[in-house]
Amino acid sequence: MRNIKLVINNSFKKNNKERFFIKKELQSILNLYAKMVSNGSWKDYSFSSCAREISFDVYQRASEKPFLRITKNLKPNYLNEKFLIKDRNGNVIKKSENLSQLINKTSWSKLRLVK
Length: 115
Hints:
- The protein has 115 residues and is an alpha+beta fold.
- The chain has a 5-stranded antiparallel β-sheet.
- The model has no long low-confidence stretch (mean pLDDT 83).
- The chain is 27% helix and 25% strand.
């Protein structure tokens, strides 16, 4: 065996930890989801991720695209762009630096699918 090196303090593991919603964020999203499912507005959900963001995708029916996406921007340009609500086409509906404020201040009953 030749010169084996042990790498300590690997920066990849530190960045990989931030690549998902933390427990408090996920709890507030799932509480909202449970409320909207009991209301009959939302039917299904999924998670998706890429290098810049992770998202909680909401479906009204079994369709190709999610009707609504709650995203956590991992590399925001501005402080208020950390959490976003996007529509089916990727347009930003609302944005905030705090997820619980974003969820509480959005009127979810007024968000409808437009064909």
